[in-house]
Amino acid sequence: CAALDITIYGGSGQNLSSSYQMKYINTAQAEYFKKNEEQLRELIDQYDAVSFDVFDTLIMRKTLEPVDIFALAGERIKARNIHIPDFKKKRRTAESLAKGKDIHHIYHHLREITGISEEEELAAKNEEINCEKQYLIPRSKMAAIMEYAIAQEKTVNLISDMYLTASILEPILSALGIIGYKKLYVSCDYGVRKG
Predict the structure, then answer these.
(1) CA-angle at 55, arms to 101 and 30, nearest 5°
(2) How many CB atoms lie within 10 A of CB 51?
(3) In the predicted model, what is the mean pLDDT of the chain?
(4) Residue 168: which residues within 8 A CB-CB, separation 6 or more?
(5) Which band of pLDDT confidence, cut at 50, 70 and 90, is reported for residue 19?
(6) Residues 148-192: tens digit of each pLDDT
(7) Of 130, 116, 117, which is closest to residue 87 (Cα–Cα)?
(8) Of these four, 20, 79, 124, 140, which has the most CB atoms within 10 Å of its CB?
(9) What is the CA radius of gyration of the chain?
(10) In angstroms, rounded to a whole number, what is the distance separating the alpha carbons of residues 66 and 57?
């Protein structure tokens, strides 16, 4: 839609193109959105190594916004009798305090903010991870492009700016059929952003 200058409106009449900052995509970025599967395969053929982003490329959440997972996880946590009022807000604050570190650090900060016990921290963290697992689905066309690169004997690596560590993400990816890549690089494991 950005490449073709099409405006998208939500059910309430809200201009989603503006809300999601799509109007700020530059010409080079807009060209990316015009690529089709055949063109991607042709690009892959030109290189020995190819990297794929994980979230919103190979897999995606069945939610409008990534942070919607926190609201869903908050309901699960509440159902386990772990009381964290305004969980979504506090979870985001804890992530901010963790400064790019992994989910374990995030939940350590959440425990400090909320006063929950160590056992409740572990249970809440596991509920969020289980919620992620439930709401993640593969993007089948991009997974097929990755499989093409692997079939062409390209070195395929995955990258992600994420708080879920590679040890948490790898089994999730495997369960979604994302396999055969050489290595998964996650920002929280290396202390640097994927860029």
Answers:
(1) 120
(2) 17
(3) 91
(4) 103, 129
(5) low
(6) 999 999 999 999 999 999 999 999 999 999 999 999 999 999 999
(7) 116
(8) 124
(9) 19
(10) 13
